[in-house]
Predict the 3D structure of the following.
Amino acid sequence: MERRGESEQAWPLLIEALSSPRNAAELQGFERLRQRLGKRLGQAVPPGPRAPAIPTFELLLPRPDQGSVEFAVAEYFASDEAPVHYVENLLFNGLLALLCWPAIYAPLPGAFFHPFQAAPADLYRSDFYQRRRALFEACLASLESGDYRDRILETWQLKQGISSPFLYWPLLTRELVGQALDCLEPLQLRACFERMLEDLREYRSGLPDLIQFWPDEQRCRLIEVKGPGDRLQDHQRRWLAFCIEQGLEVAVCHVQWQEAP
């Protein structure tokens, strides 16, 4: 309707849609549309929500002979006291699956058709979480009761090597899982998992590239890496903002390559 110039007809539909967006991506799109239509129609439109300030690094690095820009930044920041891992979406996806395996793989009607199915058939349906709500709540409750660590490590041991869209076993080592559980607070994990379960198709991606651990201090930092000419995407900005809201330390690192002598 906007593209057809039907601004007056679109306005009431937009206001109605703003009252119940499906997810943060849809809300962001509606807010941008409200700014454009409001300007055309002379409507008083409040400014959209202000994004939190994200700490940013500008690095000038020698171009590596092999490997990606993410590995170059990981090597730059890493030390014996503060290791850095290139995890992108795989760490939080893996931790979610290891904690909530009984809920994700519950044998609900219509979810599985053969024994080698890597994921339930309704994984990306809008009612995936609701159909298993009680099971997920029981798993997430362990983040408050304190036995989540034992549950995650036990599942890591029992399910090792089993195919799952949430798990990339070569990355998800016992060392990485242990460091994550030492340095990520359980309530932060719960907030991230609940966000992912809101809309798995939308929220399983967009997480920062790197994670740096300070085991002695039991803290960590998530780092999004951008190489020359690259920029933050909307879903990445939303995840960074969400992490800041939850008290997670984050940063964006913009890299330029040094000119060869």
About this structure: Residues 20 and 230 are 33 Å apart (CA to CA). Strands lie at 56-61, 84-86, 210-214, 219-226, 249-257.
